[in-house]
Specification:
heterodimer; A: 250 residues; alpha/beta; Rossmann fold; 4-stranded antiparallel sheet; 10 helices; 28% strand; globular; B: 498 residues; 11-stranded mixed sheet; disordered N terminus; Iron-regulated ABC transporter membrane component SufB (chain B); SUF_FeS_clus_asmbl_SufBD_core (chain B); SUF_FeS_clus_asmbl_SufB (chain B); Fe-S_cluster_assembly_SufBD (chain B); ABC_transporter-like_ATP-bd (chain A)
Chain lengths: 250, 498
């Protein structure tokens, strides 16, 4: 059984259809890259999978481990192990990153019927993971993303991913706004998490990230559909020839 | 976050429309006849076996009150109050003379047990650090004066306080036992000719707390008063007077609850603080009067006059308030910075949900030289509520070098509520520095989704964001109150983000 199955997905925002019958199958352990021009519906897909309000699903279904995902609330989906690294992480003043991480992690654990981590146990884990990602301790004491640079925000997303150990990671333009060093750190963090039981959907405009995070499958999205799928070679072709050739295919 | 989890669980248990403190205690009460007249004032004074000077003072206040009409400048709307339809005095009927707490009607004790008094839990709280200089947490002792309807029913730790020379007792007792102190200070901060509600209070107040801290004494424990309105159609008019003599220090906490009722109840308290040279008073309030139900029916009308007088040089008065209850709040804890180098602080969290109306803020009167004041106000409006910050900062001609910094932030939850900021600044001396900052923001859908995508429920997410917003002020509260306040805030915002 695939980990994620999206079938004939039609999605509207304020009455306008954004996704027009999208299909996508992701098996356990696979890393899929989704590429495509602005406005092709990549971010919409990530929002619909994670349950962001404001989207009407007019047809189709999404199955996660064979279960109807659309029947679950966004917090329940998170507890099932679906994680979204946001393109634009929000700032939450007055809430320390540490407090945020612990509240979120324990909420997920409770929803799964597990006991919450004790404070010392949690702190130890959070510090270890932060160190691996080159995140200074002082950052954990600051308000969530408040005053963080673009690179710090993205690293903070990877920190959360590493801490929550999700089953399906969706990375929405994790490479945007990163310089080459930051990109390498983020990519290392992602690669460290690759495992046969974990799948990833990497949304990006650029081939650059895929040099570091090598995908098993590459999809091209255009106008709300997947118009072509292939292996990592497809990303290189795109880099050379651009998206224009697919505009008509859609 | 433990507090958040508890809150969510508790909220799940109680449901939207259930006010946690909404129970009623069935006890016989001894009421004054309904309505207000000179006879009512005489009745109350006689009930309290007051000396004649006190009765005269009350009657004078009553006559002052008659000459005035209710103020209408606040941004609150409510039907006319029928001052003749209220009972001005209701005391739990004692079965006999009480000699100790053990003899108090068990029904009343049960009420306090339900309220979690005095056995308040101390918990270590994520994100709220102990006040600087204070003990980290531990089992700090708190002396409590419990005021039930109009009468103080119990004061704890009396003996221990007496050893330190601190007087902490119901004001009715202080009038009899320490008339010289009461006469010297009562009405010197809020005179009987003050505003409409203060005049009313001066005429009919039945009890409240009295504190005197002698020179050089640091009060060995937190002092606390719990107010509860129980009786139907009863107004509560408590009077609190706190005097910190030269070089002394005292921290005082106040908590309020009331049962759920369909009709509105009037609460018009007066608090007077006097700080002499080098003295410091820290006054904290967690106000959780019944706010009315989800249709806006019932709830407490809270018209309160709180004022502190920094009478001595280098004195300091600090107000911290967490306001979550009441149908209407009309409250402006103020500081008169009379002594040179004195300072005043006002830290406020005012939360309104449902149909609540809050018009609250502070006044800082800079009279002395080099006086300073700091205001941090955090208003949170949800539901269909109205939340107004109203503040005055003034410096008179002699207040050379006065400084004020005001931060006034509003947070809106949903799109049917309103937040307003009405600052007044008056400087009659050119050497003063007054700064005012204000922001209004909304909890955005994006922030909520970010939290919920990480596994939090809607309630947890709102609670987390709000707690972040108010953290600066929450940290000013004594530890025990901070825990309680954080829980209250989450409960009062239940269902607000749907």
């Amino acid at each position: 059984m695939p980990l994620l199955e999206v079938r004939n997905l039609h999605v509207c925002v304020e009455g306008r259809e954004i996704l027009h019958g999208l299909d996508l199958t992701v098996n356990a352990g696979e890393v899929h890259a989704i590429m495509g021009p602005n406005g092709s519906g990549k971010s919409t897909l990530s929002h619909v999978i994670t349950g962001k309000p404001g989207y009407q699903i007019t047809a189709g279904r999404i199955l996660f481990k064979g279960e109807d995902l659309l029947a679950l609330g966004p917090d329940q989906r998170a507890a099932k192990g679906i994680f979204l690294a946001f393109q634009y992480p929000v700032e939450i003043p007055g809430v320390t990153t540490m407090n945020f991480l612990r509240t979120a992690l324990n909420a997920q654990r409770r929803a799964r019927g597990q006991s919450g981590y004790s404070t010392p146990h949690f702190l130890k884990r959070a510090r270890t993971v932060a160190k691996q990602l080159n995140i200074p301790q002082s950052m954990l004491k600051r308000g969530v993303n408040v005053g963080f640079s673009g690179g710090e925000k993205k690293r903070n997303e990877i920190l959360q991913m590493a801490l929550f150990e999700p089953v399906l990671c969706i990375l929405d333009e994790i490479d945007s706004g990163l310089d080459i060093d930051a990109l390498r750190i983020v990519a290392e963090g992602i690669n460290a998490m690759r495992s046969p039981s974990r799948s990833m959907i990497v949304i990006t405009h650029y081939q650059r990230l895929l040099n570091y995070v090598v995908p098993d499958v590459v999809h091209v999205m255009s106008k709300g559909r997947v118009v072509k799928s292939g292996d990592k070679q497809l990303a290189l072709e795109l880099e050379a020839s651009g998206y224009a050739q697919f505009e008509d295919a859609a | 976050m433990v507090a958040a989890r508890e809150t969510v669980e508790r909220v799940a248990r109680i449901g939207v429309d259930q006010y946690r403190y909404g129970f009623e205690t069935l006890i016989e009460s001894d009421k004054a006849p309904k309505g207000l007249s000179e006879d009512t004032v005489r009745f109350i004074s006689a009930k309290k076996s007051e000396p004649s000077w006190m009765l005269e003072w009350r009657l004078q206040a009553y006559r002052c009150w008659l000459t005035m009409t209710e103020p209408t400048w606040a941004r609150v709307h409510y039907p006319n109050i029928d001052y003749q339809g209220i009972y001005y005095y209701a005391a739990p009927k004692p079965k006999k003379q009480l000699a100790s707490i053990d003899e108090i009607d068990p029904e009343i004790l049960k009420t306090y047990e339900k309220l979690g008094i005095p056995l308040r839990e101390v918990a270590i709280l994520e994100g709220v650090e102990p006040p600087p200089g204070g003990p980290p947490s531990a089992n700090r002792k708190i002396a409590i004066d419990a005021v039930f309807d109009s009468v103080s029913v119990a004061t704890t730790f009396k003996a221990e306080l007496k050893k330190a020379g601190v007087i902490f007792m119901p004001i009715s007792e202080a009038i009899r036992e320490h008339p010289e102190l009461v006469q010297k200070y009562l009405g010197t901060v809020v005179p009987i000719s003050d505003n409409f509600f203060a005049r009313l209070n001066s005429a009919v107040f039945s009890d409240g707390s009295f504190v005197y801290v002698p020179p050089g004494v640091r009060c060995p424990m937190e002092l606390s008063t719990y107010f509860r309105i129980n009786e139907r159609n009863t107004g509560q008019f408590e009077r609190t007077l706190i005097i910190a003599d030269k070089g002394s220090h005292v921290s005082y906490l106040e908590g309020c609850t009331a049962p759920r009722r369909d009709e509105n109840q009037l609460h018009a308290a007066v608090v007077e603080l006097v700080a002499l040279d080098d003295a410091e008073i820290k006054y904290s309030t967690v106000q959780n009067w019944y706010p009315g139900n989800s249709e806006g029916k019932g709830g407490i009308y809270n018209f309160v006059t709180k004022r502190g007088d920094c009478r001595g040089k280098h004195s300091k008065i600090s107000w911290t308030q967490v306001e979550t209850g009441s149908a209407i709040t009309w409250k402006y804890p103020s500081c008169i910075l009379r002594g040179d180098n004195s300072s005043g602080e006002f830290y406020s969290i005012a939360i309104s949900n449902g149909f609540q109306q809050v018009d609250s803020g502070t006044k800082m009167f800079h009279l002395g030289k080099n006086t300073s004041s700091r205001i941090i106000s955090k208003g949170i409006a949800a539901g269909k509520s109205r939340n107004t910050y109203r503040g005055l900062v003034s410096a008179n001609r002699n207040a050379a070098g006065a400084r004020n910094h005001t931060t006034c932030d509003s947070l809106l939850i949903g799109d049917k509520c309103g937040a307003h900021t009405v600052p007044y600044v008056e400087a009659k001396n050119s050497s003063v520095t007054f700064e005012h900052e204000a922001t209004t923001s909304k909890i955005s859908e994006d922030v909520l989704f970010y939290c919920i995508q990480r596994g939090m429920s809607q309630e947890e997410a709102v609670s987390l964001v709000v707690n972040g917003f108010i953290k600066e002020v929450l940290q000013k509260l004594p530890m025990e109150f901070a825990v309680e306040a954080q829980k209250l805030i989450s409960i009062s915002l239940e269902g607000s983000a749907g």
